[in-house]
Amino acid sequence: MPVPHHAPAAPAPTLHAAIGTLRARGVRLSAPRRRLLECLYAPGPPRTAEQLAGAGAGDVATVYRNLGALEAAGVVRHSHRAGGAACWAPAAAVRAAAECEWCGRREPLDPAVVARLRAVALHTLGFEVHLDHLPLPGLCAECAGRRTNDPWEASRVAA
Ligand SMILES: [Zn+2]
Ligand SMILES: [Zn+2]
User: Is the pTM of this model over 0.85?
Assistant: First the structure.
């Protein structure tokens, strides 16, 4: 199962660095875990556990168990599309994002802007936000420009 973002991230930019971090943290690197890391560091978008299993990282139950261990060590992270399945990637590759509720467009957020948003939420609400876990929901500029307050009209615009 995906674990919450309690473990501090230990972003490792390369497979080699990730292996070094895991060794330094005393995480056992079995052959299936190493294969899973190789799949995670292969180029491409974040992948579901099922996709990772399909890419040769082992059976789905083993993949979930090993993802849990790697995520607890901070080396990988999962994130979701709005309403979507968890997808895993190297922690170094996971970006905070905003996702348009209307057209589904997903935009990575500038880290400096994310830091400001997080600071405001923390200071005014005492709440720590994790936009690298779930995307910031809302409307992209294009969809916001087409918005109308009439839901009937809005549904026709979307069609
Ligand atoms: Zn999650
Ligand atoms: Zn949009």
Answer: no
Residues 6+ apart with CB under 8 A from 133: 5, 77, 78, 79, 80
Looking at all shown ligands, the one closest to residue 132's CA atom is: 1
141 C-alpha vs ligand 2 centroid, how far in Å?
7
Q: How far apart are CA 23 and CA 150, in angstroms?
A: 58
Token pair in block for residue 75? 């080396």
51 Cα: distance to centroid of ligand 2 (angstroms): 27
Which bound ligand lies closest to the C-alpha atom of 102? Answer: 2
Q: What is the mean pLDDT of residues 44-51?
A: 92
| Domain 97-158: assigned CATH number | 3.30.1490
Fold of domain 15-93 = Arc Repressor Mutant, subunit A (1.10.10)
Locate the domains of the chain by residue range. Answer: 15-93, 97-158
Q: Ligand 1 mean position to 74 CA, how many Å?
A: 14
